[in-house]
Amino acid sequence: MRVMIVDDHAVVRRGIRAYLEVLGEFEVAAEAADGQQALDRLREMSLHGQLPDVVLVDLLMPRMDGVAATAHITRAHPDVKVVVLTSFGEMERVHAALSGGASGYLLKDAEPDEVVAALRVATRGDVFLHPSVARRLTQEVVSPPTGLSALTGRERDVLILVAQGRSNQEIADALVISERTARTHVSNVLRKLQLTSRTQAALVAVREGLVPQQNTA
């Protein structure tokens, strides 16, 4: 199995490489220090018919993070599987990675054999989740989050800006996103909080202590 390792820490890449190569069934085809470098190398490898079977990718990296890299990789190279290996287990990151096409999500406290299992499962077309991540996803299905807990970090930021009386364009400028994306975030906030107006959203933000009351006057 050909594997690419993408992590901005060289010592992590070397450790993973050493472990996989000892097992005999894996060949580390390439390494990259960030998402952009990974995409560049995958493009080169594709030209020579040498794409890896799986890309093992960290999430927090310079230039291009793992979530964006995952989405680009799975779109440009649909036969290449992506397994996330990261220190971050926040559900917002998990959802983003899986939505981007990741075939696995592991935390860096995983046992070495779990990493191997995730790589094998990915090549079979299935999804492997770190046990704690799987438990939280199951809990979300059984007891969906409500209120502010249902919002992503970005949506909470949007709620605060709405409470400050910002327009969609002003929200877009503050968060460096498009006006259309800002409008979508506002709609998602209202839907998740089961509200019908921006004024109601502002009142919720005040009530929950996200903004002082005078900011909504």
Overall residue-averaged pLDDT value: 88
Under the CATH scheme, the architecture of the largest domain is 3-Layer(aba) Sandwich
CATH domain fold name of the largest domain: Rossmann fold
Low-confidence stretches: none
Helix fraction, binned, reads 40-55%
| Estimated share of beta-strand residues | 5-15%
The CATH H-level homologous superfamily of the largest domain? Response regulator
CA radius of gyration: 20 Å
For the sheet with most strands, the description reads: 6 strands, parallel
CATH class of the largest domain: Alpha Beta
Strand order of the largest sheet: 2-1-3-4-5-6
What this model shows, in words?
The protein contains ten helices and six strands; from the N terminus they run E-H-E-H-E-H-E-H-E-H-E-H-H-H-H-H. By secondary structure, the protein is α/β, with parallel strands linked by helices. The chain has two domains: 2-141, Response regulator (Rossmann fold), CATH 3.40.50.2300; 147-216, Winged helix-like DNA-binding domain superfamily/Winged helix DNA-binding domain (Arc Repressor Mutant, subunit A), CATH 1.10.10.10. A six-stranded parallel β-sheet has the order 2-1-3-4-5-6, with helices on both faces. Helix 3 links the parallel strand 3 (54-57) and strand 4. The longest helix has 14 residues, at 10-23. The radius of gyration is 20 Å and the shape is elongated. The termini are far apart.
